[in-house]
Structure formats: structure tokens, C-alpha cells
């Protein structure tokens, strides 16, 4: 192996990645080996992303199957009122919002292997999904949905945190986008699956919508075996890397994380987490995108049916919407990682949403093709923004403790968008749904404002640090300096 291959990462590269090396002699001794790094990244990609993505596909199908069950007769069989479906949607999100952050803090504590923790959560909510298929009342649906929210709360934030532990900041966005693509793929697959299962109507004395829950719940139970067997442990305890590869990766990630990397929670670290405007702005941006995503997930079949499609046509027409969103997401994630830039792609996704919501609001209901195209724009907007915002926040958190808090907070609290979407698409407004589309448009604009504020804040901080205006912090004692995280004078934010 040539020396050139081992030293292609210059000091300038490291500064662009978010760290400065001149002040840290220990890190300066680390020798980059490009061939070794490529080999490690391939191993991580093959051992980490496939099992998590498979589990996420099943998770998303479980989360969205209620929308398919609705148009197959669930609301009629259970004598649900005009707003009961909306209640069934938002009740899941109450525990989801409250428990996402505590779950990620538990993940950070490492009290249980990720494979056991994530698979255990999945098994528990699978039982709830099956319960929805056999319940005889609307109250049973509410109870199962609430418990689902309790168990699902920790899954996506936990996966995001686990993935972030394996990759450098510039590489995380593309990997998280691959993981998040599973949700988009599940949206397409879920439509096909619901279309197939509905033909079981009457089998065993059960309606087609009941079989949707029962079969998909049993699929989830079976999938937990994949999680138990194949989800790796944290990097320090991983068993798919050779000892020298593991040590190289740990040193590489230590250097990439910057000069201050708190790996624990104390009063200083918790204060930095709770009062960091970056986390709050990221959460607001995610909130706007999540409203669009949850609207598509929960109401797309209903909206399509209101445009004149039959039940089967509505199920099938959801598929291309997700496929296009999947393609746009991965293109944006690739170039975002390649260019080491987040903001422009987040705003691009939001602008797609503005176009989509505007089309749905202004185009006549008789223009079915145009309204259908609007759904493409809204879905692409949501699925481009959400993974990039999570990656953006994770990239700019100093240390594993703050990264766990930041991703859990943004995904958990940002998921309040589900509460909004579940109450703005009102049955009596069919087929215009003006309230839903107006609120979606407004929150997308709020998301653009929050992302722009976040970009300007970090740009200003980088300029201050480049000019040495925060160097007085370097005079702090070693413990205090170590707890600064991304407030360390040598940390550079990824814009």
C-alpha cells in the first residue's frame, strides 16, 4: 500500500470535517489509511444497514396499515364516528412523543444490546397489531394503538443513534437515508400487500381489513428473529471487525467527533442539550416535514379515493408516489454527503412541499391528474427533509451523549406533526380537505424558516471561531473543556 494512500486526508480535510488538528498532538499522530477505511465502511454497510432496514420496512407497514384498513371497511364494521379514525391516529403519538427521548438515553447507557432492545420493542408492538385485527370494538383499537406508540417510540431514534455510532459525520447522511428509504419502500409495498390481503375478505369469518392487521402483525413477529441474529452491537463491542480494524475505526471516529466529546450525562451536558437552539430549530423543521409525511401515510388512500378511484385503485396508486419519493431522497442524500452540505437540500425538499400543498389547495377537484401529481411533491418533500434533518442535527452534536439526546428529541418531539395531521383532515371536508392542505402549507413554510435560522446560526458560530473570538474557552480546566461538546472553540459545524 502506498504512502500516498495512507495520507490523503490533509489538515484542511479535517477542518472541513469539523475538527482542527494542530492543537491536538495525540490526534495528529493518527495515520489515515484509505484502503482500510473503505474496507471498514463496506463491512459496516453490510452488517448494519440491511437488518435495520428490513426491520424498518416492517415497522412502517405496521404504522401505516390502519390507513389501508380504513378504506376496506374498518370504520363501518366498528361503527366508528366521523372523528374516531382521527382519534385512533393521534393516540399512538402521545406515548411516541413522550418516550422517544428517554428510550434513546437508555440506548446510550448501553444497559442492553441493541439487537435485544430493538427486537424486543418490535415483538411487543407486533402483538398489538395482531390485537387490532381481532378486537371487536373501537375501544380495542384505541388501546392497541396506544400500546403500539409506547413500544414504537424507541425504534427509529434508537436506529438513528446506532447508525451514527458507526460513521463519520460526512458519511452519516447517506447511510441514514438508506435506512430511511426503507420507510418509503414500505409505503409502496404496503399498498401492494393491502391490495392482496383484501381478497381474503371472509376467510375464517374475518373481514379483509382484519386480515391486514393479523398477517402483517405475524410478519413482524417473524422479522424480530432477523433483528436478534443480525443487528450488531456498538462499535467497541462489535464482532464483525478484526481487532486492528476495530481499533482503527474507533480512533477514526474519535478524531472525527472533534476535540470535545462528552460521552456521559452531567448537569453541564444536560444544560447544553436542553438549551441548545440548534436542537430546537431542528425539531421545528422536522415537525413541519413530519406533518407532511404523516398526512401522506394516514390519509393518502382516503384522498385518492375521494378523487374518484375505487378502493383497489386507491391502494395501487399510492405505490408510484412512494417510488418517486424514494428516488429523490437517495439522490439528494448522495449529493448532500458528497458536498458535505445539508441546508440547501433540506430547503429544496421543503420547496417541493410548498408546490404540492399549493396544487392541492388551488387546483379544481375535477383535475384528478394534477391533484395526483401534488401527492408526489408532498411525499417527496417529507421524505427528503426528514432523514437529512436528523443527519444534520446528529452531525452537529459534540459527543455521543448529546447525539443521543439530539436525535431522540428531534424525532420524538418533532413527531408531534402526527398529532396535527391526524386532526386536520376532516371527514366532512371531503374531497377538498382545505384545512389539512392549508395547515400543511403553513407548517412547511415554518420549517423553511427554522432551517434557515439554523443555517445562519451555525454559519455565524463558525465565523466567530475561525476569527478566534471564542478562544478564551480554551483556558477552562480539562473537565469543563471536555464537556463543551460542539461549543468547543475548535469544533466546526456542518452547514
Strand content: under 5%
Unreliably modeled segments: 1-28
Structural class computed from helices and strand pairing: mainly alpha
Global Rg: 23 Å
CA(first)-CA(last) distance: 34 Å
Helix content: over 70%
Number of DSSP helical runs? 20
Succession of helices and strands: HHHHHHHHHHHHHHHHHHHH
- Main sheet summary: none
Protein model, in words:
The chain is mainly α. Helix content is 75%, strand content 0%. It has helices at 3-6, 11-17, 25-28, 34-77, 84-109, 114-134, 138-152, 155-164, 169-197, 208-230, 243-256, 267-274, 277-306, 311-339, 343-362, 368-395, 400-414, 417-424, 434-466, 478-482.
Describe this structure in a few short sentences.
This protein is an all-alpha fold. The chain has helices at residues 3-6, 11-17, 25-28, 34-77, 84-109, 114-134, 138-152, 155-164, 169-197, 208-230, 243-256, 267-274, 277-306, 311-339, 343-362, 368-395, 400-414, 417-424, 434-466, 478-482. Helix 4 (34-77) packs parallel to helix 9 (169-197) and helix 5 runs parallel beside helix 8.
